[in-house]
Amino acid sequence: MTSPGGLPISETPPVTTPREAAREAAEHELSKPMYHENDPSLLDRAVRRLLDWVDDLFSAAAGATPGGTLGVVVIVLLIVLAVALLWWRLGTPSKVPAGAGALLGERVRSAADYRTEADAHAAAGRWTEAVQARMRALVRSLEERTLLDPRPGRTADEAAAEAAVTLPGHAADLRTAARVFDDVTYGGRVGDQAMYARLRDLDTAVERTRPALTGITGATS
Prior knowledge:
Layout: H1 19-30, H2 42-64, H3 68-90, H4 111-123, H5 127-144, H6 156-166, H7 171-185, H8 193-208
Helix pairs in contact: 2-3, 4-5, 5-7, 5-8, 6-7, 7-8
């Protein structure tokens, strides 16, 4: 049988495939590794997306900033300069140990032990460690004299405030000692010989001072 144009007409009807089945077949075929040998890796795609995002961000900032791209560069440089100034002013951030702020550790040591440690550090010129040990000796001595209740976790400021109640004549020096301890322990300040000498003298003076009696009213005639 021929068509009106003289072309033969197939006697067999054309093969048709349902649309969904055809799509699944195509996806299955395209999923074969041979079609993806030159595809970028997952990392490459992630990096490319990141770079595109940064490029879009700077483009948007350039469009919204007076001066365009030059304005963005100036702002970035100002931010970097500000961070550098803060870094120079505050110093390198140091890792603060767990439980930072506590004056005495969990392990109980005597005031004499702390004083021995302080003197050893001082003899070696390790003034920061000497200051720390001497402040701990002072507070531990107050606990041994029952002028302070032994309490783990007490800070230097708390110890100074509590000790000032029974040692009012040394209140100001105790507050100063607590501030020095905090500065060298948590503030990144370096101890020196003068700091240690003041703490050593305060420790000696406090040890020789009789506490003021509190809660007792004077006798009346």
